[in-house]
Write a structure and sequence with these properties.
Blueprint (H helix, E strand, L loop, with lengths): L1 E7 L6 H11 L6 E8 L5 H7 L3 E5 L5 H9 L1
Length: 74
């Protein structure tokens, strides 16, 4: 299985394009997942990703980039 982890904070403007790009680039692979780690966004980033079938992990307070990536990997 391939796991693509997307760390994001307030990326509502770009997240749909990002997720679509992942799907396009993994075209032909049947066993992959996309995980969005929402770093305490105050916009609709997580809601948009969820509507697109992405797994969401949400942080209630802003964390460092490494902590966000590590949560996604775990």
């Amino acid at each position: 299985m391939i796991s693509v982890i997307i760390p994001a904070q307030n990326e509502a403007r770009y997240i749909e394009r990002c997720i679509n790009s992942v799907h396009e680039n993994l075209n032909g692979f049947h066993d992959y997942e996309i995980i969005l780690v929402d770093n305490a966004s105050t916009d609709e980033t997580a809601a948009i990703a969820q509507k697109m079938g992405v797994k969401i992990l949400s942080l209630s307070s802003k964390s460092s980039p490494s902590a966000v990536r590590n949560l996604g990997v775990s």
